[in-house]
Specification:
The protein has 163 residues and is α+β, with helices and mostly antiparallel strands. It has three helices and six strands; from the N terminus they run ααβββαβββ. The strands form two sheets. It has a four-stranded antiparallel sheet with strand order 1-4-5-6, with helices on one face. It has a two-stranded antiparallel ribbon with strand order 2-3. The longest helix is centred in the N-terminal third of the chain and has 53 residues, at 17-69.
Length: 163
């Protein structure tokens, strides 16, 4: 009689409810980790762009103040060509802004003109910049105006200040 009971109980095929819940929990945790990493990277890029925006505004204000103090003249070297700020003499030709317009090959050193009196120091890009290549560029526009732009902006954002 006992043998009949044992033979009638065949092992069931499939997963238990506990096994399914554990697998589902693992999938949810992995998805949450992947999504948070993706959004974390975007948040870092947005924070760097916010820093770039503030630095572009500071540079534009400093140059405008210099222009007012010097009877409408900008520091020497600023003309209608897009020039990256920095101390490097070669290798400053990088794509700048969404349009990808290249800056001139030599950087424009404005440290002696605007640093200390108008700014504590010439800012540099939070990701790519250095004193040699700041990844901020400047040029004049028609009508006596000027444009300052960030060359290293992320997330396809154009960061420019025209004054």
């Amino acid at each position: 009689m006992f043998r009949m009971i044992e033979k009638s109980r065949s092992p069931q095929k499939g997963f238990t409810l506990v096994e399914l819940i554990i697998v589902l929990a693992i999938i949810v945790i992995l998805a949450a980790v992947i999504i948070s990493i993706y959004f974390f990277k975007n948040r870092l890029a947005e924070a760097r762009n916010a820093s770039r925006f503030e630095e572009v505004q500071s540079l534009a204000s400093a140059l405008t103040t210099y222009q007012v103090d010097h009877n409408g003249f900008l520091p020497p070297g600023i003309d209608n060509k897009l020039r990256m700020l920095g101390t490097e003499t070669l290798g400053c030709d990088v794509p700048c802004g969404i349009s990808g317009e290249a800056t001139e090959s030599s950087c424009l050193n404005l440290s002696s003109f605007i640093a200390y009196q108008y700014l504590a120091q010439v800012p540099d890009d939070p990701l790519f910049g250095s004193e040699e290549k700041t990844y901020y560029a400047v040029r004049t526009l028609p009508g006596g105006r000027m444009a300052v732009m960030a060359c290293g902006s992320e997330l396809n954002v154009d960061i420019t200040s025209e004054k």
